[in-house]
Amino acid sequence: MSLEMSNTNGGNGIQRSQDKRELLCLLKLLKKYQLKSTEELLCQEANVSAADLSAISETDVQQVLGAALGLGEGEKEPPRPAPVETKQTAVTEANAAEALAKFIGDDSFDAQQHEQAYEDLRSFVEDSLDIYKHELSMVLYPILVQIYFKMLAIGQKEKARAFIEKYKSDLDGYYIEGLFNLLLLTKPEELLDNDLVVAMEMDKFVIRMSRDSHSLFKRHIQDRRQEVVADIVAKYLHFDTYEGMARNKLQCVATAGSHIGEAKRQDNKMRVYYGLLKEVDFQTLTTPAPAPEEEDDDPDVPDRPKKKKPKKDPLLSKKSKSDPNAPSIDRIPLPELKDSDKLLKLKALREASKRMALGRDQLPSAVFYTVLNSQQGVTCAEISEDSTMVACGFADSSIRIWSLTPAKLRTLKEADALRELDKESADINVRMLDDRSGETTRNFLGHTGPVYRCAFAPEMNLLLSCSEDSTIRLWSLLTWSCVVTYRGHVYPVWDVRFAPHGYYFVSCSYDKTARLWSTDSNQALRVFVGHLSDVDCVQFHPNSNYVATGSSDRTVRLWDNLTGQSVRLMTGHKGSVSALAFSTCGRYLASGSTDNNIIIWDLSNGSLVTTLLRHTSTVTTITFSRDGTLLAAAGLDNNLTLWDFHKVTDDYISNHITVSHHQDENDEDVYLLRTFPSKNSPFVTLHFTRRNLLMCVGLFKS
Amino acid sequence: MSGKLTKASSASSSMLYGSVYSAESIKVIAESIGVGTLSDDAAKELGEDISIKLKRIVQDAAKFSNHAKRQKILISDIDMSLKVRNVEPQYGFVSKDNIPFRFATGGGRELHFTEDKEIDLSEITANNAVKIPLDTTLRSHWFVVEGIQPTVPENPPPLSKDSQFVDSVNPVIKLDQGLNKDAAGKPTTGKIHKLKNVETIHVKQLATHELSVEQQLYYKEITEACVGSDEPRRGEALQSLGSDPGLHEMLPRMCTFIAEGVKVNVVQNNLALLIYLMRMVRALLDNPSLFLEKYLHELIPSVMTCIVSKQLCMRPELDNHWALRDFASRLMAQICKTFNTLTNNLQTRVTRIFSKALQNDKTHLSSLYGSIAGLSELGGEVIKVFIIPRLAFISERIEPHLLGTSISNTDKTAAGHIRAMLQKCCPPILKQMRPHPDIADEYKSDFGFLGPSLCQAVVKARNAPANMVTISSNTINTAPITSAAQTATAIGRVTIPSSQRQGSPVVSTLPQIRALQSNQQPQKFVIVTQNAQQQQSQQAKVVRRGSSPHSVVLSAASIAANTSNSNSSSGSGNVSNLNSGGSLLSSRSNDNSTLDANSLIIETEIVRAPPELDDLTHLE
């Protein structure tokens, strides 16, 4: 376990710098424990010959080991995956009192003074001009919380509570949950143990503010000699100022709500190649950039010639020049296409040509698959890309696959029979399967906890599943057995997704990390660290170069698979993020949350496009139609909503909507096409077939 | 964990903090595990500590339930959140359902606890027939077809019962909703958005009640199957009527079909068809997605006719029309129970009609039977107030027939049925009303001819175990075997789900009825369907809001014009301009209630439906 960790974190580098003797001892030790591959690798990297190794005696090893143990475990132990935790453990081990002193700041802490300071600040915000008021009010929450921490740190529990109780009504509703979490704290020691506290301690709380508001705020602090506030501001707040008009209430609220404030501008400065890859073999698969698709003045003219539509269909139109926003095809190494894969792609393409064009006037048909007799144990469901199979994960750790077509689920023939087959024959894929073994449903047993997500490989021969037992399993859909178990996460794994080009997959966990894996390695290729709370969902970008994650810290991040860096940070959700979906064009990201909202983000700059509000409970699944014109979302409120995504992007690109504009009108239904209630059946997943038929999976709640 | 939790009442009551384990609870828990002396401070500290830990565990458990796409936290979620914290899960606490907290107070203290029943192991071991749980299966249905949700049972009903109710109570609401209603109903089209921008005059919209081709086909199929001769098909049709959502659009037509059918067939004395029509009423009543209040004005007179009509069959002395009367009585009771409100006084009015029949000494014996049957279904209190005081009078009427002085055989059977009915329904009530020693002479003086037999029945009832003598709707079937007796048992079987309400009347095999049907002249059946079709085509032509009440009133008026009894016609005529079904119902029923039961029957009897009456177009 520890070795795996050290490898992922580049532990080899540390070892190389060490004394050669120690290295040799280590090699000896590896040999002793028969860790062959590691030994070989290390030998190669350190240029150690076998002769050197034999010179080291057993006693030397003992000596070195003894010395290392004497130094303390801390050095040898690899760092924990999450720096937050490292900090936490370090802090706990350090003198708690010392750590607490940090909260208090100075010895002469006076609760009364702090309360007075807050009161002053509050009245300052209240009395400020209306245009600045809302921006200024955003500073209240972090300062309130910091004062609370200080009060708690010196043990004035009752006072601290009374303080929060007194002022909590000032805050917007979405902060209350966070506050509730904080109010659980009663003892100073617990401060050091709380995620939220540590998060606020570690990172400065980011507040976006116009320059005018900010200078107004600074002047207030200077004029009124607000040392207490000034101190907190200096320590815990970061102001991200911008030129221009101060934002109004709605604009402020739209991006607020995260546990770490708003995204800084430099968080989203990195360039993101959001365009789709230019496929080598199939030119027809290329997609143009999601530029404004038409310049029609009124997109709603009903008598618009229908012929135009298929022409504009991005998937089918040939684009000669490459998309400037697309990453180069070899930016990350992709698996080479096998002949069978090409056949699959051709088939997919042929299917796609029969696709129904959807739009405002042409809504899709939907078929609903109800899982019956499940005892409410369905935790996830997944429909394969070619819509032939559905996989359901259950709370009883089993996975069940159903064939949705008359074709049976067949298994491979026996090895002997396989050997006899002519491997060059055209229909080898069919002939290698045993006709007698066909079944309409099959079970996978292997996990030891609820299965939280399944993912079909794009080639339809593999299935990934992740579970509460902190493992990810890869199953073969030909032999119908478990092929690999990936261990790496140390806590329940919430989500797993296959890359659209296969080979890679990404997972995320309770341990606050998301990891990128490849199917042929049992170690993660990248560990994406940065979220402050559970990473609840992940999604691969259609070009396989990026991964989006949604977390319980109420943020959505986009990570670059090449560098492992966070390239976008998007705040605005007021609850943990529960569903993610990339638009077909790759430029937009839709995220659903437990706060019942769906937010559309523009990945080119990380800005919020619009908020779609209609659901009354957690949004569990979001999907885009294959032609990218519709967005379908569904959730635990037993409702399926269809949104006109085409209109959203049109309006966004022609600058018709800003966050405020759209909500000011008090007409949030402009993009909503229809709502379909189900009969007491919460939705588990949605899927568009290649021909744009919508498939829903749900369970009936009696 | 399942221990007794005392709620902290002293600490903060604020929602934000939630509750904290009080020191007392900690002490109680400590005692329960044998720690006798726990200082106050320690208990307090411990209480706070535990509260925080528990809340954290629950917070984590919420994450697990979220990821399992549930909104309810289960015990397994708590287990998993313990596991994440490296705490041993609480093994053995498994429950699929909520564990309800019971609450008790005493000595100024509040106690919440869970009930822990003792389980008899021997019972479990003896019970070896453990059911294998059903296998998980996948079932598919069309959820949306090109943007429109089909009305299949798997989908929610297109119009919720609430909105149907609102619709029936306040029809104007439809107008107010006008343009913006489309989000729920028909798909949005670009046109509507355009209208918003252009300056338009709000023209009162015509509510169209057109049926789609599919619905017309369905109506035709269903009505034909319901009154046709194919019994399995009828079963399916009734099942469809009883369970399909989305029938509300053709409900007016269905009700008219039933009302017209009853009118025609009462005149024709076609017992079988009347039974089929009543079974349709039954199916509609059973359909959980329908709200029938708007159509009661058609259904109630029809059902009432089937209860109290003087003659319902060709050979009253042989055919078992009693079963129809019983069945219809049960329907009436069900209607009263479901739709009676303070404003419509349905039950009062129905009761009044029945009881008037009991007052009148000229009431035909069949009608008398119907009235008694109708009243007896309405409950013990009704029997007590309306039937028992009239027992002597009824005895007087049936006595001559039963003692053989009557010439008519028909009257004799009728009298026999009345006696059987009274002996079924009265003893349980009499048992409670009268003092213990049951003396036959007293009974005789009080109730006349029926006295002695009632006395016997009461004595028997007193001796029998309590649960045997409750009035069951199924026990009234004591008809002698006649040619239609099998029909009666058939209906009797149909009524079995009536006590359960949710079941739809599925009668899988009733071959006897087919035999009966073959006796009927086929052209009667044709008349009914023809009538329905013509009406349908006529209504498609005349588009009118509220549809059914209007055309129905017209037909009612036309019937009235043909009847000699103009008394009732004036009432119907007056309400023709009213839109609301509810008000129509009330005025019509009020009107009825001023008549005695006899004239009500006369009204339906006199309608000798001439062929041209069925064709309503001549009224235009």
Explain the overall architecture.
The complex is a heterodimer of chains A (702) and B (620). By secondary structure, chain A is of the alpha+beta class. Among the domains of chain A are: 2-79; 96-247, Serine Threonine Protein Phosphatase 5, Tetratricopeptide repeat (Alpha Horseshoe), CATH 1.25.40. In chain A, 32% of the residues lie in helices and 26% in strands. In chain A, the strands form nine sheets. Chain A has a four-stranded antiparallel β-sheet, with no helix packed on it. In chain A, strands 10-11-12-13 form a four-stranded antiparallel β-sheet, with no helix packed on it. The longest helix of chain A has 17 residues, at 111-127. Chain A is globular. Chain B has a two-stranded antiparallel ribbon with strand order 1-2. Chain B contains 28 helices and three strands. Chain B is mainly alpha-helical and 620 residues long. Among the domains of chain B are: 23-116, Orthogonal Bundle (Histone, subunit A); 391-470, no CATH class. Chain B has helices at residues 23-32, 40-67, 75-84, 121-126, 161-169, 173-177, 190-197, 213-227, 231-243, 251-268, 271-286, 296-308, 321-339, 346-359, 365-377, 380-387, 391-402, 409-433, 440-447, 451-463, 485-494, 511-519, 522-541, 548-562, 566-574, 581-594, 597-606, 611-614; strands at 101-106, 109-114, 137-144. Chain B is extended and about 95 Å long. Chains A and B meet through α13, α14, β3, β4 and β5 of A and α2, α3, β3 and α7 of B. β3 (366-372) of chain A pairs antiparallel with β3 of chain B, so a sheet runs across the interface.
